[in-house]
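fwd from M.: "can u put these together and see what the complex looks like"

so here's what she sent:
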Amino acid sequence: AQSVSQHNHHVILSEAASLELGCNYSYGGTVNLFWYVQYPGQHLQLLLKYFSGDPLVKGIKGFEAEFIKSKFSFNLRKPSVQWSDTAEYFCAVGGGSYIPTFGRGTSLIVHP
Amino acid sequence: GAGVSQTPSNKVTEKGKYVELRCDPISGHTALYWYRQSLGQGPEFLIYFQGTGAADDSGLPNDRFFAVRPEGSVSTLKIQRTERGDSAVYLCASSFGTSGGTDTQYFGPGTRLTVL
């Protein structure tokens, strides 16, 4: 079975600061990795995903994530955050027929 | 509508009562998922349907929980003899259903269940 660990539970940044949210997983097979975001009052939605190929994945709103197989990591990054990036961020890992397992989430607050 | 819808948005019930939560997926999506999210936690998988059949129900915590999808579209999550520990937000998601582990899931707004 797979598992996901998100180390940062709460992150507070000022606008224009750089962001990196950690995500580590354990899974023995070929992984599929996801970052979902939940903006205040909205549904969970996909930010980006990795299945294969280029380990650097670009998503919506300037977010990117890098799959580092040797470190079992899929950290989310953004060079310059905006107030509108305030949200809850969830990393998830799936594989083949396995339904994705979600991490406990990171709450990001960006001060204007 | 274009997205996943869930009803009711809020449900308050008393311990021991029976509740039904409904999910209406995106039209054309063959896969449907139920998750439970407790405060401060990520979504916890409950059950996954491919069409009318439950392809994976390994996340259902016990036999008080049951879900159906009789016509391959709308799904109902049923909880018998509710307990206070069942209080959570119940999320539904749907996807095109090409693969349970790789599909992008589209989530609904959730039903907040409170058991008094």
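replying to her w this: The interface with chain B takes residues 4, 6, 9, 32, 34, 36, 43-46, 49, 51, 90, 92, 94-105 of chain A (CB under 8 Å).
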